[in-house]
Amino acid sequence: MTNLNKRQSAETASSPSQERKPSTSSTLKLLLGYAKPHRTAFLGVSVCALLGISAELLQPLIVQIAIDDHLAKGEGGSSLLRLGLIYLGIAVISFLFTYLQNNLLQYAGQSIIARIRKDLFRHISKMSMSFFDRTHSGSLVTNVSNDTETISQFFTQVLLSLVRDGMMLVLIIVLMFSLDAQLAMFSMLILPVIFIVAALFRSYLRSTYQQARSRLSRLIAFTAENLSGMGLIQSFRQEEEQFGRFTEQNRNYWNANLRQIRSNVLFNRTFDILGNAALVLMVWLGGRAVLGQSMEVGVLYAFVSYIRQFFQPINQITMQWNTFQSTTVAVERIQRVLETEPDVREPGEKEQIRLPSSSLRGEVNFNNVTFGYRADRPVLKNLNLHIQPGEMIGVVGTTGAGKSTLISLLNRFYDVDAGTVEIDGVDIRKVTQNDLHAAVGLIQQDPYLFAGSIIDNVRLFREDITREQVIEACRFVGAHPMILRLPNGYDTHLSERGSGLSAGERQLISFARIVVFRPKILILDEATANLDSETEKLVQQALSSVAQGRTTIVIAHRLSTIMHADRILVMQDGELTEQGTHAQLLARGGHYAELYRHARQSGREQLPG
Ligand SMILES: Nc1ncnc2c1ncn2[C@@H]1O[C@H](COP(=O)(O)OP(=O)(O)OP(=O)(O)O)[C@@H](O)[C@H]1O
User: Fold this and answer.
1) Are residues 191 and 280 in the same domain?
2) DSSP conformation letters of 343-356
3) Probe target for ligand 1 pocket from 7, 129, 135, 373, with the most ligand atoms within 8 Å of CB
4) Which of 284, 309, 339 is the last residue of a domain?
5) How confident is the model at residue 433 (pLDDT cuts 50, 70, 90)?
6) Tens of pLDDT along 358-408?
7) Ligand 1 atom at minimal distance to the Cα of residue 397
8) What span, in angstroms and rounded, lies between the C-alpha atoms of 415 and 446?
9) Atom 1, ligand 1: which residue's CA is nearest?
10) Is the CB of 399 under 6 A from ligand 1?
11) If 208 and its partner were Cys, which of 128, 183, 260, 454 is the partner (CB 3.0–4.6 Å)?
């Protein structure tokens, strides 16, 4: 399959219209796979639940013995006290086992969810750029946060309910039949009514739950989008409009949430009424039996207690059905991400060729490369480019000419559709991502900084790179004085995206990263486009220091950045139309000369495009 075909099939697979229906069996398969390493804990939960509820269910029997065997015969005193102490002891035992069972279950459940989250994050970070082109980051955030949280409810609520309430129900039925088979038979008459009510409510409860969840997701996505675009919103004075849209989303969620709560309350209270009706029936039938002396008072008391407890597990299990439904939806969403293979694949062990950084020369070749983001629109067409080790290359061209695409292919963010991209004569598809990204360093226009100190941002949280190495790198690129001016110097904590630093300062930090990580090939994608001339001078100096001994490719809109390059490439509509030194290209009088003339006329060094 070609890459284009692969991209298309991946796009189709993730389109909403093609979403598969969540299936119970695949949900269980995934969950049981994750639960397997914790089977001892789950066995412990079952044993504790059995012992806990057995102790709980013994309590009415103790009272029955106290009434029928002691009170009814006029016995009291020490034997009643002994029964009272046994009752208390059993209550303590029930508490202890329930406590143990909850702790074990929470431990296993939370460990499983942490593992799912870890797997998901690792998988997402290995995905190719094409995956991020077609997947909304908000939906991935929901996968990692909300969906895993929903799955956690499966372990901490659904499973617990199935085990505990299931066992409780069976034990209650056994105890009721052993106390009085006839009365127990009458109680069972209520079961069909319970099932009918549960079935009637089930789909209504599920739809209210799903509606509330989807409205909450929309509200979260809307808020996240607004936070990241707050600068734009304020500069266009859109606060009121956005507030209006937020209010509407908020109201929608509020309505859906209230509807869900109302339906839950209605369901629970209907069950209460059924329970009370069964109780009245038991008291009436049992009371007649007691009066007719065919039943003892204590037995009736125990029966009434069990009937009250009988409805609790049924109610719980029915409620868990909804949670299970939302778990299947969450599992399906997570599975869809986990099953998506990266379009850019690691080479197999046999075809792998190492690119050891110690012996790397930094030669780059694009041989007859054709590539398009979509099957029907090639962006690069049959492109040939040979870059010598240590050469400094400048790339110019109009908007959309394919300059950034060239860089993306060299980083293997996408695979070529035809031809090859080589480093030191090795096809980069045969190189591991680790080796490739150690060989190629990228500095983007708006370098990304993480929440953390300056030190951590330069060494990207790698503990094996020392503080001294970081400081030396910052001195080398000329960032040291600027960092010392910050409130806590190298330990200054940067907030997310590096706000608090200017664009130029962020650039200098990303240059220091390059010095620390030592890639042999350096790429700058319009790194100086947004800088004032003072800062640009600083960045220029840093660039010439960092470019020493490295193959450097600079995409620039500013002439000054690339005028002194060994070679300037001119790209137009996906093709290399001219190349040579600044002087050669001017002498040629082609597209570059025209771009240069435009730039001079406008009084700025900014190239059009
Ligand atoms: N992720 C993408 N998905 C689909 N099409 C894309 C994507 N990135 C770029 N393109 C398209 O590919 C073509 C080349 O884009 P590219 O970003 O390489 O151009 P460029 O020369 O770097 O332009 P600029 O100077 O404006 O950044 C454009 O038509 C663009 O719309």
Assistant:
1) yes
2) SSPPPPTTT-----
3) 373
4) 339
5) confident
6) 888 989 999 999 999 887 888 998 999 999 999 999 999 888 888 889 999
7) 21
8) 24
9) 133
10) yes
11) 260
In a domain, 89, yes or no: yes
Q: Which atom of ligand 1 is nearest to the CA of 408?
A: 18
| C-alpha of residue 163 to centroid of ligand 1, in Å | 56
Decide if 27 is inside a domain.
yes
- Does the residue 244 lie in any domain? yes
**What would the pLDDT profile of 120-165 be if each residue is shown by its tens digit?**
899 988 888 878 877 777 677 777 777 888 888 888 888 888 888 8
Q: 308 and 456, same structural domain?
A: no
For residue 609, the surrounding DSSP H or E stretch is: none
Which of 364-378, 524-538, 571-585 is the least confident region? 524-538
Q: Which domain holds residue 138?
A: 3-15+23-339
Helices (H), 180-189: 181-188
C-beta of 321 in contact with ligand 1 (< 6 A):
no
From residue 426, alpha-carbon distances to 3, 362, 431, 478 in Å are 20, 11, 8, 35
Q: Ligand 1 centre and the CA of 399: distance in Å?
A: 8
Task: Give me the half-sphere count of Cα atoms (radius 13 Å) on the Cβ side of residue 382.
Answer: 1
User: Which CATH number characterizes residue 419's domain?
Assistant: 3.40.50.300
Strands 493-494 and 452-453, bridge-based pairing: antiparallel
Q: Are residues 541 and 408 in the same domain?
A: yes
- pLDDT 10s digits, 48-104: 988 988 888 888 888 888 888 888 777 767 778 888 899 999 999 989 999 999 899
Local structure of residue 429 (DSSP, 8 states): G
Q: CA angle, corner 525, sides to 551 and 599, nearest 5?
A: 105
What does the pLDDT look like over 182-204, one tens digit per residue? 888 888 888 788 888 878 887 78
Do 53 and 97 belong together in one domain?
A: yes
542 and 501 in one domain? yes
Count Cβ atoms within 10 A of the Cβ of residue 27 and give its class: 0-12 exposed, 13-18 middle, 19 or more buried.
Answer: buried
CATH number of the domain enclosing 287: 1.20.1560.10
Ligand 1 geometric centre to CA of 377 (Å): 11
- Which residue has the least CA distance to atom 3 on ligand 1? 373
| Counted domains in the chain | 2
On whether both 168 and 301 belong to a single domain, the answer is: yes
Task: Report the C-alpha gap between 69 and 227 in whole angstroms.
Answer: 71
Kindly provide the ipTM of the predicted complex, given to two decimals. Answer: 0.96
Nearest residue by C-alpha to atom 23 in ligand 1: 400
Q: Which residues of 491-506 are buried (b: 16+ CB within 10 A; e: fewer)?
A: ebebeeebeebebbbb
Q: Which amino acid is at 338?
A: L
Q: Which atom of ligand 1 is nearest to the CA of 407?
A: 18
